[in-house]
């Protein structure tokens, strides 16, 4: 079915995936011999979504997915060992705890539940990495009492 739709476009345009807004059917590829529908599916770079209007992957904030599912987690785009890896799903905008690395210098920057960046806190004056403090949303030096055992 998708191959026929690609033929109708004379292989000039990529087509939106029927269900997933971050995926599309690659109709413009020069490789057309014996392709199955699955072989034609491509995934946009995270966090882009496929625009029906432009026929290409664009910034998620500029795309209307209509009835297609709007992926938000990085692991919706690629397979991950932990599905919450670097996910901002359910978190407010701004800097937040890196869920799979809590209690560490790692944190994520979120916008509309999407991960815009993964970051690491800087070192303090003692040469130790500061820890991301989720309660205050920033990096803080480790308390000296935390270092004693």
Quick tags:
elongated, Antimicrobial Protein, Tachycitin, Chain A, disordered C terminus, 3-stranded antiparallel sheet, Chitin-bd_dom_sf, Fibropellin-1, Chitin-bd_dom, 2 domains, chitin binding, 149 residues
Indicate the topology.
Blueprint (H helix, E strand, L loop, with lengths): L1 H7 L6 E2 L6 E3 L11 H4 E3 L5 E3 L4 E3 L15 H4 L16 E4 L8 E6 L2 E7 L10 E3 L4 E3 L3 H4 L2
Antiparallel strand pairs: 1-2, 2-3, 4-5, 6-7, 7-8, 9-10
Determine the number of helices (DSSP H or I, runs of at least 4 residues).
Answer: 4
Largest sheet: 3 strands, antiparallel
The CATH topology of the largest domain comes to Antimicrobial Protein, Tachycitin, Chain A
Uncertain regions spanning at least 5 consecutive residues:
145-149
How do the helices and strands follow one another from N- to C-terminus? HEEHEEEHEEEEEH
CATH domain class name of the largest domain: Mainly Beta
Beta-strand content bin: 15-25%
CA distance, first residue to last residue: 65 Å
Number of domains: 2
Mean pLDDT: 87
Annotation, overall tally of beta strands: 10
Based on secondary structure, the structural category is: alpha+beta
Please state the second-level CATH architecture of the largest domain: Beta Complex
Q: Please tell me how large the radius of gyration is.
A: 21 Å
- What form results from the Cα inertia axes? elongated
Helix content class = 10-25%
């Amino acid at each position: 079915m998708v191959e026929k739709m690609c033929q109708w476009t004379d292989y000039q345009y990529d087509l939106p995936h029927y269900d997933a807004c971050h995926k599309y059917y690659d109709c413009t590829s020069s490789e057309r011999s014996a392709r199955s529908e699955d072989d034609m599916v491509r995934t946009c770079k995270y966090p882009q979504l496929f625009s029906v209007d432009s026929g290409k992957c664009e910034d998620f904030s500029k795309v209307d997915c209509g009835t297609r599912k709007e992926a938000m987690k990085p692991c919706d785009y690629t397979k991950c060992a932990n599905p919450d890896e670097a996910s901002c799903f359910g978190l407010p905008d701004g800097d937040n705890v890196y869920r799979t690395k809590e209690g560490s210098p790692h944190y994520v920057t979120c916008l509309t539940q999407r991960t815009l960046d993964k970051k690491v806190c800087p070192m303090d004056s003692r040469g130790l990495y500061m820890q991301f403090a989720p309660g205050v949303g920033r990096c803080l030096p480790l308390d000296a009492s935390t270092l004693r055992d």
